[in-house]
Amino acid sequence: MAARLWPDLDAVSSAKRLRQLLWRMRGRWDRLRLLATLGAQVDELAEAPQRVLVQAHPRRGDTVTAYRAYLDYDATVRRELGVEPGPALRDLVSGLR
């Protein structure tokens, strides 16, 4: 049996665990970026990992990657859900320009 990221936890518990990990890692941007990337891979529609990525990439001097992450997420939620990203993420992105 292959190892899972969080064994014996359902999707809701996994998302809660990811939020807890993100909170504990606040200020540790390289680690946050890695966790957020994993979170975005687990649930491509989750906005919380995207907000972390949009904040973490510029701290490494990589504003372009932050903006690309936003554009990819924007396209995904529009295609899959017919909605745009939430105001908190849009506000973060508007600060990149």
TrEMBL record:
Domain Bacterial transcriptional activator: residue ranges: 27-94
Protein name per UniProt: Bacterial transcriptional activator domain-containing protein
